[in-house]
């Protein structure tokens, strides 16, 4: 009996030990789990729980500002508000749907379905994005639970239909869709932030958890090479030309020939990029000076002439050519614009008179291979690489199809096509020492907080096309065209303008349209040390003489007369002496009248306007040495 009791007791003890051991193991596991959960894996588990219960409001970032070369804002951001909802917090979904649908011009039934669909956050896109101040105030007055007005920004273009083609625009989400906004979207686009808070099961905020902010990061500031003062002068000129001549299109481009920096660029038709949706996509998707390709006409002669001088196949002042009014090439008669021709000329006069037969002779002297190589080396038939979307590479004959007739017509810009940016880039190489540069519109990337330069876009030389000596001769030749030749209308006393006119027929469906022209003028100044190349062209202008020199020349002169002082160009009267025609208004240098007695003031060219008391000239305006038109008045200040 005792033995039996002992065995039972031992068995119970063994069972108790097993149970105790098992309990210890369970407690150890529980303790280990607690240690793992609260110490080792705490952050991971907390983050997973926070992700499950946390709600986020988006905080919009500021898109990078775009400025001109002097730091003037061309594009900026205005604070705006967008509508966001937390459906679980919306108490009366029907009432909210009705009110918001009316304010935001949305379909009430569609909005009700959106609010009734379970989601952590609902953004009313696009009607609720960047809403007007008035609509924001109407929504705020309702004080609906679950309806929030969140931070946003609206892209603003203060110059509206000016600069629009270059700058482009952004969409409702703030992403660049056209122009510089699109091309440099990755730099300009910032990174949105969030305002995070933890909710309970009903979607209400947990007061014991503080909100957490991931701040938005602003986009970089983009400084352009554009000079806004010059840009506005160009815009004014295009506006006036549009009113006077009603052309189908206008192209204008100004560039620094020493660096490839684009100072101004524009076209007509244009649009207001604040309201781009109101315009046809063919207007806002094309920057015409880089997109449009057409026969350049006689402006191309500057490059052909430079090639001939560089190859020494002509001496422009000694060699002569007799222009009888035409040349026969491959059975085709190539005529001069002047009936009967220009007679015996030096080759400099061939350029001045823009003689097509004379350029046929130049092309013969150059030959097929040399002319073709220069056309390609000046960049025609290839993109310039400018940082503007939609660039056209133009069209040149293939070498195999470059026969005698094509050689002849290409020499004076017919049968090939080029873009304004190609012409300006090639012309810059003609006058800057011979260097073909890569044009660009981006000048530097700046820090949005400190405005410090992070990266500056360099001047990029593609190749040297002609020698420095040839370039120097071309500056003189092109200045002669304006002083004595077909470019007279662009002459400005003291500013030494050089250039080449262009009157090109428009080809459609393989044949030329009678009476339809592109009138153009390719110019630069000052020719002693060129600071700007300016190209202005009009397609199918009306109510005007259909010659580039006659119609576009005065426009170019007016633009340059305003641009050059901005570029700190001082007047210099040492250039090629002007050759007057009976139609030109003569100008004369203003003498020094200071110190003379009033009774001794005489001039066969000017009138005098007197101011002040006394008999001695103590000051005068204009100043000594300036040139003014015959018959102009000189203001004389008298004293004792």
Give an account of the 3D structure:
- With 640 residues, the chain is of the alpha+beta class.
- The chain has 4 domains: 39 residues; 169 residues, Penicillin-binding protein 2a (Domain 2) (Alpha-Beta Complex); 339 residues, Beta-lactamase; 53 residues, Trypsin Inhibitor V, Chain A (2-Layer Sandwich), CATH 3.30.10.
- Helices cover 33% and strands 24% of the residues.
- The strands form 9 sheets. Strands 2, 3, 4, 5, 10, 18 and 19 form a 7-stranded mixed beta sheet that branches.
- Helix 12 packs across helix 17.
- The radius of gyration is 37 Å and the shape is elongated.
- The termini are far apart.
- The model has no long low-confidence stretch (mean pLDDT 87).
Primary descriptors:
Penicillin-binding protein 2a (Domain 2); five-stranded antiparallel β-sheet; Beta-lactamase; single chain; 640 residues; alpha+beta; seven-stranded mixed β-sheet; 4 domains
């Amino acid at each position: 009996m005792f033995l039996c009791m002992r065995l039972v007791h031992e068995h119970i003890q063994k069972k108790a030990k097993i149970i105790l051991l098992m309990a210890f193991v369970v407690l150890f596991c529980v303790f280990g789990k607690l240690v793992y959960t609260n110490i080792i894996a705490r952050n991971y588990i907390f983050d997973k729980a926070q992700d499950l219960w946390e709600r986020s409001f988006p905080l919009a970032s500021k898109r990078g500002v775009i400025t001109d070369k002097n730091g003037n804002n061309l594009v900026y951001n205005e604070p705006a508000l967008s509508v966001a909802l937390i459906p679980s917090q919306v108490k009366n979904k029907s009432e909210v749907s009705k009110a918001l649908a009316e304010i935001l011009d949305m379909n009430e039934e569609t909005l009700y379905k959106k609010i009734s669909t379970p989601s952590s956050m609902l953004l009313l896109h696009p009607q609720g994005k960047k809403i007007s101040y008035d609509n924001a105030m109407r929504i705020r007055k309702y004080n609906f639970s679950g309806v929030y007005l969140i931070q946003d920004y609206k892209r603003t273009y203060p110059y509206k239909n000016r600069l629009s083609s270059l700058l482009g625009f952004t969409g409702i989400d703030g992403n660049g869709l056209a122009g510089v906004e699109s091309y440099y979207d990755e730099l300009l686009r910032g990174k949105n932030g969030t305002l995070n808070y933890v909710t309970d099961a009903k979607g209400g905020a947990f007061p014991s958890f503080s909100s957490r902010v991931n701040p938005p990061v602003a986009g970089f500031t983009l400084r352009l090479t554009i000079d806004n003062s010059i840009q506005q002068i160009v815009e004014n000129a295009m506006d006036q030309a549009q009113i006077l001549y009603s052309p189908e299109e206008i192209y204008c481009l100004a560039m620094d020939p020493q660096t490839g920096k684009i100072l101004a660029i524009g076209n007509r038709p244009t649009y207001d990029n604040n309201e781009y949706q109101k315009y046809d996509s063919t207007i806002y998707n094309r920057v015409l000076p880089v997109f449009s390709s057409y026969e350049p006409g006689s402006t191309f002669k500057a490059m052909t002439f430079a090639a001939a001088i560089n190859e020494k196949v002509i001496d422009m002042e000694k060699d002569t050519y007799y222009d009888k009014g035409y040349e026969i090439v491959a059975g085709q008669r190539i005529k001069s614009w002047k009936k009967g021709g220009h007679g015996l000329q030096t080759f400099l006069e061939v350029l001045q008179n823009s003689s097509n037969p004379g350029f046929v002779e130049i092309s013969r002297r150059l030959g097929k291979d040399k002319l073709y190589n220069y056309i390609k080396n000046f960049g025609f038939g290839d993109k310039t690489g400018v940082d503007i979307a939609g660039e056209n590479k133009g069209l040149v004959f293939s070498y195999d199809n470059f026969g005698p007739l094509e050689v002849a017509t290409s020499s004076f810009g017919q049968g090939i096509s080029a873009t304004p940016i190609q012409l300006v880039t090639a012309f810059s190489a003609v006058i800057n020492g011979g260097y073909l540069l890569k044009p660009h519109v981006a000048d530097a990337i700046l820090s949005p907080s400190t405005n410090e330069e992070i990266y500056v876009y360099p001047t990029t030389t593609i190749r040297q096309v002609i020698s420095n000596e040839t370039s120097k001769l071309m500056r003189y030749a092109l200045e002669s065209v304006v002083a004595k030749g077909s470019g007279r209308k662009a002459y400005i006393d003291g500013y030494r303008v050089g250039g080449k006119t262009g009157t090109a027929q428009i080809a459609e469906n393989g044949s030329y349209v009678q009476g339809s022209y592109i009138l153009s003028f390719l110019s630069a100044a000052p020719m002693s040390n060129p600071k700007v190349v300016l190209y202005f062209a009009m397609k199918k202008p009306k109510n005007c003489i259909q010659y580039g020199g006659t119609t576009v020349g005065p426009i170019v002169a007016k633009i340059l007369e305003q641009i050059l002082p901005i570029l700190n160009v001082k007047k210099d009267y040492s250039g090629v002496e002007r050759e007057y025609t009976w139609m030109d208004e003569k100008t004369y240098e203003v003498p020094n009248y200071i110190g003379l007695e009033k009774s001794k003031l005489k001039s066969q060219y000017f009138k005098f306007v007197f101011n002040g008391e006394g008999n001695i000239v103590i000051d005068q305006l204009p100043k000594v040495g300036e040139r003014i038109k015959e018959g102009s008045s000189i203001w004389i200040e008298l004293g004792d």
